Amino acid sequence: MKMNKLALACGVAMLGLSSVAAADVSMNIGATSNYIWRGLTQTNNDSAISGGLDYTHASGFYLGTWASSASWAPGMTYELDLYGGFAGEYNGFGYDASILRYSYDQDVNADFTELGLSGSWQFLSAGLNYTFSADNSDQEGDMYYYASVSYDLPQDYSIGGTVGHYNFDDSSLEDYTHYQVDLTKSAGDFGDVTLTLSDTNLKDTAPSAGGDSDPRFLVSWSKTF
User: Fold this and answer.
1) β-strand partners of 89
2) In CATH, what number does 5-224 get?
3) pTM for the full model?
4) Which residue stretches of the chain have pLDDT < 50?
5) Are 68 and 22 in contact (CB under 8 A)?
6) Phi, psi (5° rounding) for residue 105?
């Protein structure tokens, strides 16, 4: 997750110099039985560990990085994301504009950069991501868009659902829709545990791309410091 990173970093740095106390830095760690991203496994249905660091300024600017084990392509061992953006709220409506850079092992040649735009209102959220730069030029022009709902439940539980669609600029690739339901239990200082059901409308003809016709069940744990 990234792009025009230098200009954004400089801008946030200058804001931080004048108001360090108005900034917030957080870290996160996590583990999952299957790293699912937009409906597709990024680890050949194996487990993954992850961690990240985020900087948020009171003005709404933020920067962050996140890394995870990944193995969806030959020779791949990790994913490293860099991102920056601006988020805020107006009359109860939340908004977020970001640039995201996805990087992988040097020999894999799979890095790409997206522009992300999203909005939220009460329990609803929606957004889109557009790939405008990629090591593999066939990825440029890809569009992903989604809609989500989330509800808080008693006893520190929450439930959410997402429907997303990937539209590929390369006509040789199969566009697909994915569906996901998450049930999360907050364990306070011990983090959050999430049970996930994920499925797509892809057929078994696309297992190499991380998709098949069977739903996937996974369990994940995460904690923010």
Assistant:
1) 94
2) 2.40.160.40
3) 0.85
4) 1-21, 207-208
5) no
6) -50, 145
